[in-house]
Specification:
The chain is an alpha/beta fold and 289 residues long. The chain has 10 helices and 8 strands. It has 2 domains: 167 residues, Rossmann fold, CATH 3.40.50.720; 83 residues, 6-phosphogluconate dehydrogenase C-terminal like domain (6-phosphogluconate dehydrogenase C-terminal fold). Helix 7 crosses helix 9.
Length: 289
Amino acid sequence: MQRCSVGIIGLGLIGGSIGKRLLQCGWTKNLLGWDRDEHVVGRALASETITEACRPEEMVNEVDLLILATPPSQMVNLSQRIAPHADEKLKAVTDTASTKHSLSKELSVIWKERYVGLHPMAGKEKGGIDNASADLFAGAVCALVPTASSNNKAVELAKDLICALGSHPVIISPEEHDEIVAITSHLPMFLATALVALAGTRASQQEELPKFVAGGFRDTTRVASCPPWLIADVWETNKGFISQAIKDFMDILSEMSKMDPKELLKFAANAKESRDALLAQRGEMNDRN
């Protein structure tokens, strides 16, 4: 489905980047947007991220595809408020939240067959529309997460959207999605945040510490600069899988602390091989697509 009308609610990094990409590639010529911050709406219009500002209650009558790109904690209440205003023109509703199991259950009750979840596996540590870019999703995987209620029309439209963003769709269930991203996306946020907290405490005791912050620390803690609401939201909606991931990680650290140098050398070599293999498999997927 080409050049459908699109509405985006939430014009931060993800919503803004989607808008920029869809307009630049010509997938839509009519892109409505709204954000609770009027300044952000103004920036979106000025930067050609959207073509028109529109309130959510009106937007659901004007677009074929509605994209919810607000913080996940706002999506259910927002949907309950605006869904009664939608008419037959609205073909699909999707969200960009990084957790799906609990949220998709609630959104599918509200939007019924129109709803299908998305999760672009791309981002930056700094949010906001001023950091949005049309190429943010280029080459990235995007989870396509239908529910039992999703109809074929909504799924196909969501898949077309993913391809228009320059991403690769991977169909996955809400439960498997959340279990996987607890390891690949959410746990790194918790580890980075904890490491920065530790460094901050030590820096108050050792004033020379900041002078030794170099590439390894910056790379390892990059995601600790993400918006604070993000880590709180993923904890609220994916606590079970994240808790298990933290436990498993702490068990590994405990084992490492008991190793002698030879054992640690072998363990580190195996870890390096695992990392290389994971990244190679990710690269092979890009090559196939």
